[in-house]
Amino acid sequence: MKGEVLNNLDNPRQLEKLYRENKVGFKREFNLVYPEIKENTVAQFWNERLNFENEGISWGSKDELLFVVIASCIAGFVAKFPKFFDINPEYFYLRNIAFIFFPLLIAYFNWKRKVQTNKVVLTSLAILASIIYINLLPKNDKSDTLILACIHLPLLLWAILGFSYIGGNLASPQRRLDFLRYNGDLVVMTTIILIAGGLMSAITMGLFQLIGLRIEEFYIEYIVVWGLAAAPIVGTYLVQTNPQLVSKVSPVIAKVFTPLVLTMLVIYLAAVVYTGKDPYNDRDFLLIFNALLIGVMAIILFSIVETSKNSNNKIEILMLLGISIVTIVINSIALSAILFRISEWGITPNRLAVLGGNILILMNLLLVTYRLFKTVKNRKEIDNVEISIVSFLPIYALWTTLVIFVFPLLFNFK
């Protein structure tokens, strides 16, 4: 988008189009390039427009607000399907929890980004095929492939959401980065919404209890469930219409948690050695080890995205490099443990899924670490770190698709 801003300074109509397609991304890229073009009158106008500190909260257009209200109601209604249609809740939520809000978020960005009709049809067919497929899988609570498919399905829908967010433009690394930033902002905003909602719920039920009315069951069934379903949709709406709400929070979180995570990982590895925990023969410990790996990988991605946008501090880059190196050590231990278990007890759906995921994460980490090492010497290399992150997103999506659709057939639904 940086090049598009520079190339269209003399074309106000095209600049406006770029801005409306992606307000958050446009503002960030414009601010990066503004020092080079600050003598330009058009650039000065856009600088004032984009960086005017609006003290109020924007509620967007009436159409946007109406869309969010309707989408929230639909999400709550889908979440109550087991109650309304006498469906086994365990069966429904295991297979369909991701369909409560992901399709609505995808529809929102298809609409906001004015995605081409053929791509809208493609995403719609992918969602429909996923709904039919996951609900037609044989009902077997002991099936590893069913559990794996259900676990990976939200990741597939997340990938489809990313496709809609970037407007179907797979060739743009910058738009993929915008999508990762959106996810970080959404986590922050949704957490705030849930905390506020939890406090309000506790106060409401407490007040009614004081006057002798027990509304807990009704409130949880019809208010809390509806609110949980709507939270990601409302959070997305607020982040997109008011990017300033969390634009200063996310960098702070990244700066605070980066040194804490690095310290925790070093201490944890030392504790593993001290306690003599054996991931090679302790299956539960290996599962926790892999969960830690995924969580740390997510923190690395979030921190790099925020650091590249806001910081010129070399110490932060060094800490990110340290986290990446320690995480490679954790990944290597987990990977060797999985290979050991496969060599000793053979291939199972779970072991193969974890093996593939760990190999992909290790490859991604090695590339990110190499780019971070170069960034320590040259700050401009941070752009290559970003590219090394987003270049793996389609590969993760492909592996997720294989686990969902191929593994059950490959292992005969076992």
Can you characterise this structure?
By secondary structure, this protein is an all-alpha fold. The chain folds into three domains: 2-51, no CATH class; 62-244, no CATH class; 248-410, no CATH class. Helix content is 81%, strand content 0%. Helix 5 (62-79) packs antiparallel against helix 12 (216-241), helix 8 (102-112) packs parallel to helix 10 (144-165) and helix 14 (249-275) packs antiparallel against helix 15. The model has no long low-confidence stretch (mean pLDDT 83). The chain crosses the membrane at residues 65-81, 93-111, 117-134, 146-166, 186-208, 220-240, 252-273, 285-305, 317-340, 352-373, 393-413. Keywords: Membrane, Transmembrane, Transmembrane helix. This is DUF4153 domain-containing protein.
Global morphology = globular
The number of strands is 0
Largest sheet: none
Number of helices: 20
What low-confidence regions span 5 or more consecutive residues with pLDDT below 50?
Answer: none
- List the domain count as a whole number: 3
Gyration radius, rounded:
23 Å
- Please report which band the strand proportion falls in: under 5%, 5-15%, 15-25%, 25-35%, 35-45% or over 45%: under 5%
Overall SS class: mainly alpha
List SSEs in N-to-C order. HHHHHHHHHHHHHHHHHHHH
The overall pLDDT average reads 83
**How helical, in percent, are the residues?**
over 70%
Alpha carbon gap, first and last residue? 47 Å
Keywords: Membrane, Transmembrane, Transmembrane helix
Transmembrane segments: 65-81, 93-111, 117-134, 146-166, 186-208, 220-240, 252-273, 285-305, 317-340, 352-373, 393-413
Protein name: DUF4153 domain-containing protein
